[in-house]
Structure formats: C-alpha cells, structure tokens
Design a protein that fits this description.
single chain
Length: 121
C-alpha cells in the first residue's frame, strides 16, 4: 500500500505546485497567501508518504483529497484534478491493501514450506 499511496501523493505534490502558479494570476489572492497554502499542502503530501502505514495516515490522505477538491473554488480545474486524485487515492488504498494481504499470504506459505523441510515434498 505504501508504494501506491506514496506515488499518488508525490503526483499531488506537483499538481499542487502547478495549481499555485495558476492561482497567482487571481487578483483576489496575494502571492504570499497562495504560497503559504500551497507550501503547507505540498509539505503535507510529502510527509504523508512516510505516515501512510501509521494510524491516521490514510485519513489524513483523505483530508488532503478533500482539500484538493475544495481548492477548485479558487482554481476551477482543481475540481476535476481533485476528483481524479481522490479516485487514485481510493485505488491506491484499496488495491494496496489487497497487494499487502497477498504478499503476507505468500510469505506465510513460503515460511510453512520452509518449516516442513525438504522431506515434505
């Protein structure tokens, strides 16, 4: 799960940065406000890469997805991109957990085969 979720979060890092560049063109937003908000979101996306397997890591990832979608009120394209990344986040969590389960079962089967010894065949 960690690899898939981290890949999604790193992709979001770049999307947030590019959205910040677009948001700077909005006259109602100051440059410092845009970069404070985008900077915090970018740092959070990188920090979440290391927190995925910890308690609350996935939930913080969902909070980031909601914030990305909500950023569409300032950069309308983010409604679409936020939804795409929310879908990718769901797939990363869902299929990542399935892959982790399969790996664990395979490791258990390998351990059981090794403990049976060479005469088990």
């Amino acid at each position: 799960m960690r690899t898939l979720c981290s890949s999604t979060l790193i992709g979001e890092f770049f999307v947030i940065g590019f959205a910040g560049l677009v948001a700077m063109k909005d006259d109602s937003l100051t440059t410092s406000t845009v970069w404070w908000v985008c900077g915090i979101a970018m740092v959070l996306s990188v920090l979440l890469c290391g927190m995925i397997t910890r308690p609350g890591g996935v939930q913080l990832g969902w909070a980031l997805q909601i914030a990305l979608i909500a950023s569409g009120f300032f950069v309308p394209t983010m409604f679409f991109l936020g939804a795409v990344f929310a879908g990718l986040w769901w797939a990363s969590v869902h299929y990542g957990r399935r892959i982790d389960d399969i790996k664990a079962r395979w490791a258990d089967a390998q351990a059981a085969g090794a403990s049976a010894g060479p005469d088990a065949a």
